[in-house]
Write a structure and sequence with these properties.
With 209 residues, this protein is mostly beta strands. The chain has helices spanning 18-23, 45-55, 201-205, and strands spanning 4-10, 26-33, 36-44, 61-66, 70-81, 88-95, 102-111, 118-122, 126-131, 139-143, 153-155, 166-167, 174-180, 192-195.
Length: 209
């Protein structure tokens, strides 16, 4: 999996003192995990925004910690967003040990065409997995063309996950199912509805406007 570099600097500012960092265009954060003490860091807002767009929560970030902190692979765990300005105000990162397994999420992306006369309800947006950091997958495709008719389901057990990836979910859990047009009122509320042809992977990855 591609690794993405991010410059980081150690910080002494905590509590209300981090406001000055934010005024200077810096974002405070914490690196924790792997049995080591938490490390307070800060990042350039513009660079962090760019890295988050590329990495999300499923790609390894190589922190280049200054001064003299060397490089540390990490994974985004929590991101705090200002409700008004929509900018990142704080970030938590998990320190990775490359030969130790982690628990993380992988996204579900629908591809293919649904059955004629049907639309597809997406029941899950992601599933939890366990794997080594280098075995992480950002998303897994669900081919809805395998649904033959209304009422058909695709379940977790129907997917082929790469070697080294263990799914931490009920294999009978439904990922997506087909519904006949005109039966919307009978359907329970779901996480997403795809009508007609499912968007391509490229379209699904495009950021919202």
């Amino acid at each position: 999996m591609e690794q993405i570099a991010l410059q980081a600097e150690r910080r002494n500012q905590v509590g209300k003192r981090v406001r000055q960092l934010r005024r200077e265009g810096r974002v405070p954060g914490v690196l924790y995990g792997a049995g080591k003490d938490a490390l307070n860091l800060h990042f350039a807002q513009s660079e962090l925004d760019s890295v988050l767009r590329l990495a999300g929560r499923t790609h390894i970030i190589t922190l280049q910690i200054q001064p003299d902190g060397g490089e540390q692979p990490a994974l985004v765990r929590e991101v705090e967003i200002n409700a008004v300005r929509r900018n990142v105000t704080h970030i938590d990162l998990l320190r990775l040990v490359m030969d130790e397994k982690i628990t993380t999420e992988t996204g579900i992306v629908l591809v293919g065409k649904p059955p004629v006369g049907c639309y597809v309800v997406k029941d899950l947006n992601s599933v939890m997995i366990e794997c080594l950091p280098n075995d992480m997958i950002g998303e897994i495709e669900v081919d809805v063309s395998k649904l033959a008719a209304a009422g058909d389901h695709i379940r977790i057990r129907d997917l082929d996950f790469p070697p080294g990836v263990t799914v931490l979910a009920d294999e009978e859990e439904t990922l997506a199912h087909a519904v006949e047009f005109g039966r919307e009122a009978a359907e329970p509320k779901a996480e997403g509805v795809i009508a007609g042809e499912v968007p391509t992977v490229a379209e699904a990855r495009s950021p919202a406007g």
